[in-house]
């Protein structure tokens, strides 16, 4: 197997180790993971955990990765193409027009060799998403390239948009989510008030005239939960609801937890969400 020497091409990625990566998409900050791997392993195609919204695998050598080996549509595998030959052939012409062939000393692979290999490669996804290597490498740096891959994965995985991110002054982070919960149901400080002012209306948890007062009238996520409760027979498991909010509607797990707690606070004793052993 030809090896692409890509350590200089991806200096932020340790070899054969997963690292967490953040992607801003539709006003929300999504957490995922990126892996720089020498060889494709079956576990790299496994279904993502609830707190992981995308996985980008960058392979360092050309190899076969079948779309059917990807168990989650939010996984992308960056596969390089064939690498340049390890040696350069130099042809020289003799004085008597006799051609002689010399094999030069093999040179170590260069960074531009690796770049050409990735340009000749492909981006493998479960659904065959249109992520083209040449367009990808027109981005200014690796963070921009990873952002482009992750955004494409999220856009196709979460086609339904429940929130109104146009009202957000910045991307909502898990830290902001915790501050919003604290603001509605706990103590307040300057950071809490800033989070309420910035996000509560766009999340549907407050009204524009007073973003610091919990008033989820017309909240689209609450309407969605109401619909699931109507169709549920008996008690709706909180884990099932959380999984639906995360995997189907692309609501980050911390925000899904906020919506469930806020829904219970709003409805009081009218509804019951069950919490069973081993439920996270």
Helices and strands in order:
Blueprint: E1 18-25, E2 28-37, E3 55-59, E4 75-79, E5 89-93, E6 99-103, H1 111-119, E7 122-125, H2 133-136, H3 142-157, H4 174-185, H5 190-199, H6 220-231, E8 236-237, H7 238-247, H8 253-267, E9 273-274
Parallel strand pairs: 2-3, 3-4, 8-9
Antiparallel strand pairs: 1-2, 4-7, 5-6
Observed structural traits:
280 residues, alpha/beta, two-stranded antiparallel sheet, 9 strands, disordered C terminus
- The amount of beta strand, in percent, is 15-25%
Uncertain parts: 87-105, 275-280
Backbone shape: elongated
Portion in helices: 25-40%
User: What is the arithmetic mean of pLDDT?
Assistant: 85
Describe the main β-sheet briefly.
Answer: 5 strands, mixed
Query: Cα-atom Rg, whole angstroms?
Result: 25 Å
Tally of separate helices: 8
Strand order of the largest sheet: 1-2-3-4-7
Q: Helices and strands, in N-to-C order?
A: EEEEEEHEHHHHHEHHE
Structural class: alpha/beta
Number of strands: 9
Quote the distance from N terminus to C terminus: 42 Å
Walk me through the structure.
This protein is an alpha/beta fold. It has helices at residues 111-119, 133-136, 142-157, 174-185, 190-199, 220-231, 238-247, 253-267, and strands at residues 18-25, 28-37, 55-59, 75-79, 89-93, 99-103, 122-125, 236-237, 273-274. The strands form three sheets. It has a five-stranded mixed sheet. Helix 4 crosses helix 5, helix 4 packs parallel to helix 8 and helix 7 packs across helix 8. It is elongated. Residues 87-105 and 275-280 have low confidence and may be disordered.
Q: Gist?
A:
The protein is an alpha/beta fold and 280 residues long. It is 31% helix and 16% strand.
